[in-house]
């Protein structure tokens, strides 16, 4: 019986080790192929484990973005797969010299008909290493390509191809060589904001300043629009029948461009009607005339009809004598900011980089260090101008009492305004010089902080203000 079992085992062993074929110097049998398959399964398991560890744990903890995580994971797993495969082949006696024979055979095959695959392979490595295209990037193809004006989001990058989910829900399998050799518009590269453009036409008799106010204020109220870069209203054409403008607003992602245009068009049209402005689509012609209030209910509160940034700016002493053109320039360079109830706009000790006018709501001015309430300001009031003009830290904190909208003029825009209009700088000096008591107090604070030295302190507040403006805003007058 034992002899019989030995005979059967020897037969099975011979069968398992029977050379099915020979490649190089290695005889491939059922046992060697099974052992190779077992080793490759272990390599595959290691690759999946490393992928999970990198994507779901390590790279996330390191704060690396999605596209970079995918690229790093792909390169590492391909390397592990290559090394693991070589080790698995070595385990069955497949030497590197045999691999040279294989590579030579593949070289002949590539020369005969696999050039495209070789290009895709090298292009895939280039894409993964250079990272000009990453997972989750939003791509647009040019008009000279097969998929004209197609847009989509990158979902996976392998060595041979890239999967792109189109806006229609389909998946485009793009050879990597096409992404390297053809121009591709990558809206996500560099992490910059993307711009949307909306053309608008108005009647020549329209109040351009009121129109500018309404459009820019509406745009800045939309959460989908970013504040930096600030939206712009470009005056494109001065025609006989209409004035043509182009609204340029920035959003975080080009994927949201259609959604942004829709929201902006609805909001602009609604708020213009609240101001007595009728919008005619689809040519975006806008004719100013008084119209009855709309019957429908809007999804969000409209702009108050009596709010005019132009009129509010004129109440500020520094801008009281500004022309319509100068006021419009101020409105364009300023920025609207929405505050929720209880939200702090700035705190004492912070840099005075802007001053503000309240368009809606109210704010509390207080000193947190001594828990002292100074005053409450309502719509039309302005604050923060001394810190900006004198270049001193904030001396108090500002917190919104209710939902509030403020209009801020920031240092960079204010500096350009002073440089362009020296007469305006003189007006500021004269206006500030009338606040003797407050200026004296601010000057003492700067001296205590070591910001004002003895050479700058000549006892004359007017001269001191002039020197501060020259120093802070690089003025020469």
Gist of the model:
By secondary structure, the protein is of the alpha+beta class.
What would your notes on this structure say?
- By secondary structure, the protein is of the alpha+beta class.
- 45% of the residues lie in helices and 22% in strands.
- It contains 15 helices and 20 strands.
- It has helices at 2-16, 30-61, 66-91, 96-113, 115-130, 176-181, 208-221, 257-274, 309-315, 324-333, 385-390, 411-420, 422-433, 436-449, 461-473, and strands at residues 21-23, 26-28, 138-141, 151-157, 161-166, 171-175, 184-186, 194-202, 232-238, 243-251, 277-280, 285-288, 335-339, 344-346, 354-360, 362-367, 372-378, 382-383, 397-400, 404-410.
- The strands form five sheets. It has a five-stranded antiparallel beta sheet with strand order 6-5-4-3-7.
Gross morphology is elongated
Strand proportion = 15-25%
How would you state the average pLDDT, rounded?
Answer: 76
Low-confidence stretches: 280-302
Q: How many helix segments?
A: 15
Q: Characterize the biggest β-sheet.
A: 5 strands, antiparallel
Radius of gyration, taken over Cα atoms and rounded to an integer in Å: 35 Å
Q: Give me the secondary-structure category.
A: alpha+beta
Feature tags:
477 residues, alpha+beta, five-stranded antiparallel β-sheet, five-stranded mixed β-sheet, elongated
């Amino acid at each position: 019986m034992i002899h019989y079992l030995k005979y059967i085992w020897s037969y099975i062993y011979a069968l398992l080790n029977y050379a099915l074929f020979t490649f190089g110097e290695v005889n491939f049998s059922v046992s060697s192929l099974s052992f190779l398959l077992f080793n490759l399964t272990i390599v595959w398991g290691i690759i999946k484990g490393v992928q999970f560890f990198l994507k779901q744990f390590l790279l996330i903890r390191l704060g690396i973005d999605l596209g970079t995580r995918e690229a790093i994971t792909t390169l590492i797993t391909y390397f592990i797969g290559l090394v693991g495969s070589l080790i698995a082949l070595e385990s069955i006696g497949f030497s590197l010299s045999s691999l040279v024979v294989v590579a030579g055979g593949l070289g002949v095959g590539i020369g005969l008909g696999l050039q495209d695959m070789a290009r895709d392979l090298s292009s895939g490595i280039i894409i993964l290493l250079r990272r000009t295209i990453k997972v989750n990037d939003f791509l647009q193809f040019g008009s000279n390509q097969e998929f004209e004006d197609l847009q989509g989001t990158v979902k996976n990058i392998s060595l041979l191809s890239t999967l792109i989910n189109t806006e229609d829900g389909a998946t485009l399998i793009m050879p990597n060589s096409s992404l390297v050799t053809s121009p591709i518009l990558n809206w996500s590269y560099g992490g910059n904001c993307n711009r949307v453009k909306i053309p608008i036409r108005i009647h020549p008799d329209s109040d351009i300043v009121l129109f500018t106010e309404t459009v820019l204020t509406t745009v800045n109220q939309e959460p989908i629009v970013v504040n930096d870069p600030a939206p712009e209203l470009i005056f494109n054409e001065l025609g006989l029948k209409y004035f043509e403008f182009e609204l340029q607003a920035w959003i975080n992602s080009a994927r949201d461009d259609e959604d942004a245009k829709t929201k902006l068009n609805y909001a602009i049209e609604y708020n213009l009607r609240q101001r007595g402005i009728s919008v005619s689509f689809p040519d975006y012609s806008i004719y100013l005339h008084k119209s009855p209030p709309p019957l429908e209910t809007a999804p969000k509160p409209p702009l108050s009809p009596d709010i005019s940034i132009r009129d509010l700016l004129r109440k500020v002493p520094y801008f009281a004598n500004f022309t319509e053109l100068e006021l419009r320039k101020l409105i364009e360079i300023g920025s609207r900011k929405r505050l929720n109830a209880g939200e702090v706009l700035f705190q004492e000790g912070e840099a005075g980089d802007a001053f503000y006018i309240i368009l809606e709501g109210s704010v509390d001015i207080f000193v947190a260090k001594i828990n002292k309430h100074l005053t409450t300001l309502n719509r039309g009031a302005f604050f923060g101008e001394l810190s900006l003009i004198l270049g001193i830290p904030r001396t108090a904190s500002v917190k919104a009492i209710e939902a509030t909208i403020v209009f801020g003029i920031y240092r960079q825009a204010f500096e350009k305004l002073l440089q362009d209009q020296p007469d305006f700088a003189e007006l500021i000096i004269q206006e500030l010089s009338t606040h003797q008591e407050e200026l004296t107090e601010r000057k003492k604070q700067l001296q205590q902080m070591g910001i004002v030295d003895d050479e700058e302190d000549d006892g004359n507040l007017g001269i001191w203000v002039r020197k501060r403006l020259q120093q802070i805003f690089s003025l020469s007058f």
